[in-house]
C-alpha cells in the first residue's frame, strides 16, 4: 500500500465526492446518489464491504466499486460459458477510478487489492469486469492484465443507451458512446 494514501471502505460520507470524481473521469451521468446507494448495497456480504476509497491529504483521489459474489446478475454482456469458475463464485468489479493527478502512484492496484481481499472473505474465487478499452493509453485493460486478468471477449458499444446509465455522456463520444468494453476475469 502507498504510505501517504489512505485506503478504506466506502462510506455514506464519501458519496458526494465519489459521484463528483466518477462523473469527472467517466462523463456526466455516470454516477448519482441513487445509483451509488444501490452499488453500495451490492458490495456487502457477510457484513463485509467490497467497495473502497482512496484519500490523499484528505482529498478523494480514487475509488473501487465491486459487487459481492451472489449480489449481481448476469446480463447480455457476460459470457459465463467462457469463465473458468461458476458465476455464483465471482464478484463483479464495477468500476475503478483514479483522479488524473494521482495516476501512476499505485492507487488503482491498491484499491483492487483491497477489494480482492474483501471478496475472498465473502467467498469469491474470481472477479469479472468490463474494462474501458478507450481509457487513456488503454490503462484500464493494462492494469487489470498486469494484475492477472484475462481477456474473455470484447463488447463494442457496451455503454451506448445502457439502461443502468440512462443519462450517461461519455467523455470521448458524447451521448452516443461507441467505446469497447473488454470483458475480463481475474482468478484469486
UniProtKB/TrEMBL annotation:
It holds the Pfam family Acetyltransf_1. Keywords: Transferase. One of its GO terms (molecular function) is acyltransferase activity, transferring groups other than amino-acyl groups. Residues 5-188 form the N-acetyltransferase domain. This is GNAT family N-acetyltransferase. It comes from Shewanella insulae.
Amino acid at each position: 500500500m502507498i504510505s501517504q494514501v489512505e485506503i478504506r471502505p466506502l462510506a455514506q460520507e464519501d458519496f458526494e465526492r465519489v459521484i463528483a470524481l466518477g462523473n469527472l473521469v467517466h462523463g456526466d451521468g455516470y454516477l448519482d446518489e441513487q445509483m451509488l446507494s444501490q452499488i453500495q448495497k451490492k458490495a456487502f456480504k457477510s457484513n463485509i464491504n467490497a467497495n473502497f476509497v482512496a484519500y490523499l491529504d484528505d482529498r478523494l483521489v480514487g475509488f473501487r466499486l465491486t459487487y459481492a459474489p451472489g449480489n449481481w446478475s448476469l446480463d447480455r454482456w457476460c459470457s459465463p460459458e467462457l469463465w473458468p469458475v461458476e458465476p455464483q463464485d465471482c464478484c463483479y468489479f464495477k468500476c475503478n477510478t483514479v483522479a488524473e493527478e494521482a495516476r501512476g502512484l499505485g492507487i488503482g492496484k491498491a484499491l483492487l487489492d483491497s477489494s480482492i481481499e474483501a471478496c475472498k472473505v465473502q467467498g469469491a474465487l474470481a472477479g469479472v469486469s468490463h474494462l474501458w478499452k478507450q481509457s487513456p493509453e488503454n490503462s484500464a485493460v493494462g492494469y487489470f492484465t498486469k494484475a492477472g486478468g484475462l481477456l474473455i471477449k470484447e463488447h463494442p458499444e457496451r455503454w451506448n443507451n445502457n439502461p443502468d446509465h440512462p443519462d450517461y455522456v461519455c467523455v470521448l463520444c458524447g451521448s452516443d458512446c461507441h467505446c469497447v468494453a473488454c470483458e475480463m476475469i481475474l482468478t484469486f
